[in-house]
Amino acid sequence: MTEFLTAAVGLILAMLGLGLVSILRGPTDADRMMAAQLIGTAGIAVLLLLGTVTGVPAAVDVALILALLATFASIAFVKKGLSRLETDGADPGEDR
Amino acid sequence: MNVARDIITVAGVSAGVFFFFAGTVGLLRFPDTLTRLHALSKADNLGLGFVVLGLLPQTGGLRDGLKLISIWMFVLLAGATVSQLIARTARQSGSGK
Amino acid sequence: MNIATVFEIALAAVVLGLAIWTIAVPDTYSATVGFIAYGLLVALIWVRLDAVDVALTEAAIGGGLGGVLLLGAAARLRDTEAMTTEGPSLIVRLSAAILSASIAAALAVTILLLPDPAPTLAPAVVANAGATGMTNPVTNVLMAFRGMDTMLEKVVLLLAIVGVWSLASDQAWGGRPGPRHQADPNGVLAFLARLLPPAGIVVGIYILWTGADHPGGAFQGGAVLASMWLLVIMAGLVDTPPVRSRWLRLILVAGPGLFLAVGLGGLCFGSAFLAYPVAFAKPLILSIEVAMLLTIATTLGLLLAGAPERSAER
């Protein structure tokens, strides 16, 4: 069972790495805004599996914080990314 | 009993890994921001859901199980909202067309 | 080489690759996004190393609040960056690279030269774990064995707030920090800002409460509360409080104040400064932590909100 879960952790981590490469390469800032979301899903899955594999039940609490704070970071990405458009003279519509 | 639990775990986590795989393929293959966002938010949230489902039989008790489910709920709620905001930004900046 | 080693190598490779990308990318916004992702991923490494308390702090500060602070800085720098046509000269960049590389090398050498086994006080901490009635060794160290350091840390947070506020112009002094955020009250962001904070506040308090016996504590809980507060502010549902408000300042000094009062009580009635009476150790520590939770949440929120920019009347 442990081997199976460790393999699953490794696979999801590899997906996370590949996804990050694709997201951070862009081309636009809107692509990069997805980074925190990717970690908010795949990173949490890795964390939960890791907690079970290594027998650290408190990893669930880290996942809980990660879920909340990754959301917060994503929203900040969008808000601060919007102010770039404002300086470019485009009307961002401020999350309507 | 233990075997039944392990079967659920193997099935759930495998399904989760599959959806993460699908999401990453989408991220790498889809051409523009909006379609990639679609791949990321839908497939990955489903993948996390299956992983949580698979880990539920391995948890110590009701409290730990509820924590796992609430994590997934947070991620779903946040994922839906943030995807909306990102998609809107992408459309306004013109890259989503 | 078993499968766990492969996983560890993969994790290290992803984090290192992300770190190099963050340094190499020229655009400030992209670098900040990379840094936040890096902070969130480093939390995974801490969990692998069995340092869950550190992982919680890293996820909350390195990934969440610290990153958002950098994003704010990047948004402000954008205007000046657009105006400057040339970047820093080659000499500046080269000397910055040499300085950073030598610091990294010095750290690496220090770690590699540590005697094996490294000198540690961990057995003493474990042996005295029962003295406070709490079983999380990290909380024991922070609140009892090295309580003085923790108290002074909170004073440093207070000084940081004073430093940020002192950047305000004379007209704005005593006013509200940061811009007023506008958002559609029926939009998705406002919807999330109504739905998530109640659950987030419960999580913050849970992290504080579980800190007695499991990883967690006031700092991590406070960071969660601060992020929920800022979420509501960013959604435009509430405004930042004017910094001259009396209750705000009371909350800001509540944590260190109570800590200091308990410490002086130990000096008067007990054996030393910050000596807890054995019978009341756990309730005293818990009440200090509750006060600190409020102080930390408010301080972190205000640090991110920035210097007062608008007069309070508007």
UniProtKB/TrEMBL annotation, chain A:
Q: What does the record say about its membrane topology?
A: Multi-pass membrane protein
Pfam families, A to Z: MrpF_PhaF (PF04066)
Example GO molecular function: sodium:proton antiporter activity
Quote a single Gene Ontology cellular component term: plasma membrane
Which key words tag this protein in UniProt?
Cell membrane, Membrane, Transmembrane, Transmembrane helix, Transport
- Could you name the domain of life of the organism this protein comes from? Bacteria
Q: Which compartment or compartments is the protein found in?
A: Cell membrane
Q: Which residues cross the membrane?
A: 6-24, 36-56, 62-78
The text of the family note is:
Belongs to the CPA3 antiporters (TC 2.A.63) subunit F family.
Q: What is the protein name for this chain?
A: Multiple resistance and pH regulation protein F
- Native organism is Bradyrhizobium japonicum
The organism's taxonomic lineage, starting at the top: Bacteria, Pseudomonadati, Pseudomonadota, Alphaproteobacteria, Hyphomicrobiales
